[in-house]
Amino acid sequence: MTVANLTPEAKTRSRGRPRAFDMDAALDAALRVFSERGYHAASISELTEAMGLASGSIYKAFKDKRGIFLTAFAHYRKLGRRRLEAMIASAKTGREKVFQMVMYYAELSYGEAGRKGCLVVGGANDFGLLDEEAAAHVVTAFTADEKLMADLIRIGQEDGTIPKTVDPDAAALAFLCFTKGLRVIGKTGRSREEMLSAAEAGMKLVT
Predict the structure, then answer these.
(1) Are residues 131 and 171 in the same domain?
(2) pTM listed for this prediction
(3) Could you tell me the CATH number of the domain that includes residue 115?
(4) Cα–Cα distance measured from residue 157 to residue 168, given in angstroms and rounded to the nearest whole number
(5) Separation CA 150–CA 144 (nearest Å)
(6) Are residues 103 and 198 located together in one domain of the fold?
(7) Could you read off the pLDDT tens digit of each residue along the chain, which spans 207 residues?
């Protein structure tokens, strides 16, 4: 059918609606750009090319680069949380659950994944003092990890696999610093063996 043969309704629909796209695939592509380049260095042109979208579709769906980042950030956290919770659920004791949470970050801190880095840690650097709303999303992510770790430590204390002398809140904060530090060091090209050894050493926090 040619443009001339389209009905007025069809012409309006064709011109007014952006081409449908796979949102998850587009956000995955945006995550790669932000993780590798950082928020400030990532350009709209890089994002549109990676996401396979025209600039018009980008602006209609997200408004601007900040909108892309915030949407991608929420997507990143949702996927990561799902994988983390699956690993924790596979462990039987509280101590094993703590170790699985530490291992989750250790496994992301070497090779290609390690060099890409962590969007949450990167977001803390990019938005800490510049964007209160975006910074609040980063704080929420950190707080959620800290609370989850404290809860797992308490489970371990209840089942006897973690000593009662361990302060759950202090240890959880220490683990937060440790696991986010793994993601930073992972950008320097450390090996899997090094990161797994670090994970084992980190468990001394609950000994």
Answers:
(1) yes
(2) 0.81
(3) 1.10.357.10
(4) 9
(5) 10
(6) yes
(7) 433 443 344 334 444 444 567 899 999 999 989 888 888 888 999 999 999 988 888 888 899 998 998 899 999 999 999 999 999 999 999 999 999 999 999 999 999 889 888 888 877 777 765 678 878 888 899 999 999 999 999 999 999 999 999 999 999 999 999 999 999 999 899 999 999 999 999 999 999
